[in-house]
Amino acid sequence: MIRAVLFDMDGILFDSERAYMDGNIEVLHSLGYTGPDSGLYGVIGKNMDGLYRYFYDLLDHGVPLEEVKRADDQYFVDHPVDFKKILFPDIPGTVKKLKRDGKILAVCSSSPKDVIDQCLKEIGLAQYFDYSISSDQVDRPKPAPDVYVHAMRVLHLSPSECIVYEDSCDGIAAAKNAGLRVIAREDRRYGQDQSAADWIVKDSTGMYERVLLEDQDGRSVSD
After folding, report:
1. Phi then psi dihedrals of residue 194, to 5 deg
2. To which H or E segment does residue 7 belong?
3. Residue 105 and residue 99: Cα distance in Å, rounded?
4. What is the pLDDT of residues 97-145, one digit of tens each?
5. What is the end-to-end Cα distance of the chain in Å, rounded?
6. Where in 74-185 does DSSP place strands (E)?
7. Confidence at residue 71, expressed as pLDDT on a 0 to 100 scale
8. Fewest beta carbons less than 10 Å away: which of 52, 89, 109, 124?
9. Are 120 and 20 in contact, with CB atoms under 8 Å apart?
10. C-alpha 214: how far from chain center
11. What pLDDT score does 219 carry?
């Protein structure tokens, strides 16, 4: 039986991938990037250090890494993301149903821990999540399994008792590397390779239905 659902955050709880991508494209162009916008898509799922270094490489090291970091950070200070406005409309209902069913819920994200906790408060769902962890709190970021391994350790659960809801290639790889089953939210915009996921669904409604099916299969096996 599935006891816990482990959520990624960006692109899963809300459509921040689009908000961040639009901003990052503007920042990179301001720093002299002339390549295709699709060149930035590989940044999805990376932590902040990975993001800065990815942009540094896109700029062929022509802009100092610290300047890349400063420019990107300042852009989002000047243009803060309204997470409540970009919350996927299906998410509140799904989260509440999972809690009603007695599931443990955790966010396992590449975003900084303070950002995760603030986002959950802003979208009004903090009280439904039992735990949150950032890739910055473990040795290695996604696609390494560390964030998911740590979550299972804290929750005292095995891979068979958990299921992951992800969207990015790196996130899916991290979960699979931790021995977890993965439900991917379908990506049709940023070219994410989701082929390693166990299932691909349109949104969290489909994820919830899959969790119910896995619960039923688990009970039939154990009976």
Report:
1. -105, 15
2. strand 4-7
3. 8
4. 999 999 999 999 999 999 999 999 999 999 999 999 999 899 999 999 9
5. 12
6. 104-109, 131-134, 162-166, 181-185
7. 96
8. 89
9. no
10. 22
11. 55
CA R_g for the chain: 18
How deeply is 155 buried, as exposed, middle or buried, from its count of CB atoms within 10 A (0-12, 13-18, 19+)?
middle
Amino acid letter at 158?
A: S
Helix ranges (H only) for 31-183 are 48-58, 65-78, 91-100, 113-122, 146-155, 169-177
pLDDT of 46: 87
pLDDT of residue 217: 78
Q: Is 83 helix (H, G, I), strand (E, B) or coil?
A: coil
Task: Give me the residues of the chain with pLDDT under 50, please.
Answer: 220-223
3-state secondary structure of 89: coil
Residues in the chain: 223
* Token pair belonging to 119: 């986002």
Amino acid identity, residue 216?
A: Q
Q: Which amino acid is at 75?
A: Y
Q: Which residues pair with 81 in a beta bridge?
A: none
CA 42 to chain centroid: 14
